[in-house]
Design brief:
Length: 262
C-alpha cells in the first residue's frame, strides 16, 4: 500500500512501486512469492472458506483474488488510485459477482467512514506486505478494525521485522537498534516509502484496548515452521524477537478484545 497522508511517516509516495509496476515487481522475486504464500496459508488455517475477510492495504489485489477463488468474501481498501485501478481490472470477475468489494479514498476518510449498514462484519482483517509499517498513529486504525470485525474477530498483519539478522550488515541497523530497544520503534526514510519499524511489544501496546497480540509467526514457508506454530504471547513471549530473527517479515496475529463491562 502506498499512503501519502499526514498520518503517515514521510509520505514519499513517488518512491514506491504502484499499480502494474508494483504487480510486476512483487511477483518477480521468489522470496516475495514465498512470503506471500506463507501468509496466505496461515489465513487458510485461521478462517475456513466461506468466511469474510477485510483486506487493508490491498494493493494490486493479489491476495483478494487468491481468497475469492477459494470461496471467501472480501472487502478491500487501498489509498493509492493506481493500485485500485489495477486491482479493479485484475479482480473484475469477482467484483462483478459481488465476491469482492473494493473501496479507495484518503486514509483519514477511510477511518471516518461508517461500516456498510447491511454488510457482513469480517472474521479476519488481513494486511500483507507491511501496510502497518506505513501508519504512524496505529491506535485509530485498530479502533477501525474493531468496528469492522465480528465478535471474536482477528487481525493478521505481515510487518517488517526489525530483528532480521540479514539487516545486520547495514550500518543503519546498528544505528537504530538502540532506539528500538529504548523506544520500541525507529523511522526508516527508504529505500521505498518512508516507514516505521516497530518491536513486537510496540505493536501490542498500540493495538490495545481494541485488540491484543496473541501470536507471532516467522514470515517463512510452512514447510519450515509447521502450521499455527509461532510464539504464544499469552505465555510471555519474551523470546518472540529471536523466533523471527531469521525472516524479513513477521506475521502478527491479534485477537479482538471484548468491550469493557459497564
Amino acid at each position: 500500500m502506498n499512503i501519502d497522508d499526514p498520518a503517515m511517516p514521510g509520505g514519499a509516495a513517488a518512491k514506491t512501486h504502484t499499480g502494474a509496476e508494483y504487480f510486476n515487481h512483487i511477483t518477480l522475486s521468489e522470496s516475495d512469492r514465498l512470503a506471500r504464500a506463507a501468509f496466505q496459508h496461515l489465513v487458510l488455517e485461521l478462517v475456513p472458506p466461506g468466511g469474510a475477510l477485510f483486506d487493508f492495504g490491498a494493493g494490486a489485489g493479489i491476495d483478494a483474488k487468491f481468497f475469492a477463488e477459494r470461496g471467501y468474501s472480501i472487502d478491500a481498501y487501498d489509498v493509492d488510485p493506481k493500485m485500485c485501478e489495477f486491482f479493479a481490472e485484475y479482480c473484475r470477475e469477482f467484483i462483478d459477482s459481488g465476491r469482492i468489494t473494493l473501496t479507495g479514498g484518503g486514509y483519514r476518510e477511510f477511518l471516518a467512514r461508517e461500516p456498510h449498514g447491511a454488510g457482513r462484519l469480517a472474521d479476519l482483517v488481513i494486511s500483507n506486505f507491511a501496510p502497518l509499517n506505513l501508519v504512524d498513529d496505529l491506535p485509530p486504525l485498530f479502533a477501525k478494525f474493531h468496528a469492522l470485525t465480528a465478535p471474536g474477530g482477528q487481525v493478521l498483519a505481515s510487518v517488517l521485522s526489525p530483528y532480521f539478522i540479514g539487516d545486520m550488515k547495514n550500518r543503519w541497523w546498528w544505528r537504530n537498534t538502540p532506539r528500538l530497544w529504548w523506544h520500541g520503534h525507529y523511522f526508516m526514510p527508504g529505500p521505498q516509502a518512508p516507514h516505521l519499524r516497530r518491536s513486537v511489544g510496540d505493536f501490542n501496546r498500540l493495538s490495545l484496548p481494541h485488540f491484543s497480540l496473541v501470536r507471532v509467526f516467522r514470515g517463512l514457508p510452512y514447510r519450515r515452521q509447521g502450521p499455527l506454530q509461532g510464539v504464544d504471547m499469552r505465555r510471555g513471549g519474551r523470546r518472540a524477537w529471536l523466533h523471527v530473527a531469521g525472516s524479513r517479515f513477521m506475521f502478527l496475529l491479534f485477537e479482538k478484545c471484548a468491550p469493557p463491562k459497564r
